[in-house]
Input
Amino acid sequence: MDLKELKVNIKQMILDDGAKLVGVGSQDRLKEAPPSGDMNYCLPGAQSCIIWAYPNPIEALENYFSKIERMSIKKAQDFAYVGAWKTAQKVAKYIEEITDYKAFPVIPNAKYREVNGKRYDFRKDDYAWPDFSLRYGAVAAGLGHLGWSGNLVTKEYGGSLYLGGVLTIAPLEPDPMAEENHCNRCKICVKACTTGYFPMDEEESRQEVIIGGFKEVYARRGAYSKCGIGCAGWVGLSLDATWSTWTPDHTSLKKHTHEEWIKNRSLRRDLLLKLLRDPNTPREIRKFNQKILASFAKVGITENVGLRPLIDTNPRCGNCNFICVADPKKRKELYNLLITSGKVYIDKKGKEYVKKIVDGKEVIHYPIPEKEYFSENELK
Ligand code: SF4
Ligand code: SF4
Output
């Protein structure tokens, strides 16, 4: 089989598995990228990356941001991460079976390189290097460019998507790079973040990301733990305290500057103690937080979010990524849904509910729980 046919077949296989975008990039385009753009770390001699994307369904996003329910996003996220890993293994196997070229399936998330003997430096709390950056690969493969949030932004689906990828020694012809960056600097991603992980105006300057000769410009990265705590769903409250993420712990990390968060380590320690152990924290909230910790520990062991069981897939923030849909008008609409969606609480029995003010009156509703949305078998 010649390389042209191989590329066509691989792309079709990926689209048949449910991805909506797929492209091919080259190591040459990534030669000036940071370390996570070097394919040789995973596969010595690799020349090509095949990268694909699964977007979030718009209706699921509307329900998620308005807090009607979050099970549709849970389903989409599980489909994307588990699917990305399965497809990556299938494609790598296919390449190796029908050609003499080696191939490497990239883990979609949660795997980081060891640098100076550490995978992540808790003291510095700033960088973690994936084995291979799917975002860099996606830029090299012509899917889009990095937006202000640092996420990949595509013309077709914005940044509200998940990525999968395979590296191979096969010298496939790269697809053209995206000509335009479709991030319009609306900064809705910054406004939708309750932790202040990345700022409104300051660009990242500590490392340059140059791909295919283009410089990717995005917001300065903050402390990883700020996003980690918020994204996990341990805390999440808007600065004006009117809306939360999908968490009953109403603390806004946005009020702490990046410098304060990094320097004042007792701030982080005290917060974690409050979330997990402090008897003054309601028992049901501590239990909720401990469950999140257990789910994260499981992913930590496998270092592969593609192996995460559905029951441990619990999107509670992800706002900066989810909200960045392609249509700027829709993005604004989603943001308006978010800021009028109220706050999540948890009752004595551990059931989550949402409280919001409508026409001056308090309204409460219980979103659909996972046991009613998914079958017992799916949740095993
Ligand atoms: S939300 Fe707006 S500013 Fe943020 S990455 Fe998307 S398009 Fe860019
Ligand atoms: S995932 Fe949530 S907490 Fe993390 S940067 Fe995005 S919006 Fe902020």
